[in-house]
Please model this.
Amino acid sequence: MTDPVSDRTAMIAQMAPRLTPGRFVFVTGAPEALSASALATYREDEGMSLILPLEVAATAGLDTTLPMRCITLQVHSALDGVGLTAAVADALAGAAIPCNVVAAYHHDHIFVPEDRTDDAMACLTALSEAAGE
Model:
């Protein structure tokens, strides 16, 4: 693994968006046992939020009306790096693409509605290429 990148332009230029296999949904109020199947969890004041594979949520009878795809930014962005999330959100907003960003230790993960996946990949690839020029 490379060292974390904190320079804004370098993070954007090196982000190399990659589509993660699978479809996911954000849910709340799920049985505790589903936490083991979750891609991610977050405890909010209102309850536990889970990002579940669509099939798991459907089998549990949970709301699956907004299936999402996950685009992983391959750059090892520094936890104290400034500007990557803002640049990604701004580019996607400019193309009217909703996004939900989950930052983990090594990478940022961008969840977009399934029907906008191709548009989001093109938008993020163009953003990265422009930063690398």
Remarks:
- Strands lie at 17-28, 40-44, 47-53, 68-73, 100-103, 108-113.
- DSSP finds four helices and six strands in the chain.
- The mean pLDDT is 95.
